[in-house]
């Protein structure tokens, strides 16, 4: 954990231009040492008609509301709403990762700001209707290149081969994997590339 915290403190996270003109969202990437091994908290989103991220593995988070002062506040609010965890009571923020554009939302699109937290005490989860389950994924599993697979993503007649992981039957891919790749690059001391198709 100390290594990740140190490298995050030195990391210059990329920030999107024209921030105030874009739709914004944020997520919380929560780390915890469990049985001597570092894990990352992920959620599996509930199956909901009309939701483009229905059933996906993701991090607690969501869109910025008018009352949210900044992305950090969004990550706090959404984590409490989605899994019942008030981060101020049990965790501390140890850094942030680069903003990621999440498909076209309006003219300039929407971007996601990932904030990284270290869990400092045990918590109990109370997922809301948006969350099917909370899953702790071992960082060691994600850093094992032999566990990395490929999948075919299809949309509007187009298909693309993309990287993914399958952890206990749950597929981790897309924007969440882009964030994880940047975090893993920092852990391994590489300059983060944040390219979804690499490795």
UniProtKB/TrEMBL annotation:
<dbReference type="GO" id="GO:0010945">
    <property type="term" value="F:coenzyme A diphosphatase activity"/>
</dbReference>
<feature type="domain" description="Nudix hydrolase">
    <location>
        <begin position="22"/>
        <end position="162"/>
    </location>
</feature>
<protein>
    <submittedName>
        <fullName>CoA pyrophosphatase</fullName>
    </submittedName>
</protein>
<dbReference type="InterPro" id="IPR000086">
    <property type="entry name" value="NUDIX_hydrolase_dom"/>
</dbReference>
<dbReference type="InterPro" id="IPR015797">
    <property type="entry name" value="NUDIX_hydrolase-like_dom_sf"/>
</dbReference>
<dbReference type="InterPro" id="IPR045121">
    <property type="entry name" value="CoAse"/>
</dbReference>
<dbReference type="Pfam" id="PF00293">
    <property type="entry name" value="NUDIX"/>
</dbReference>
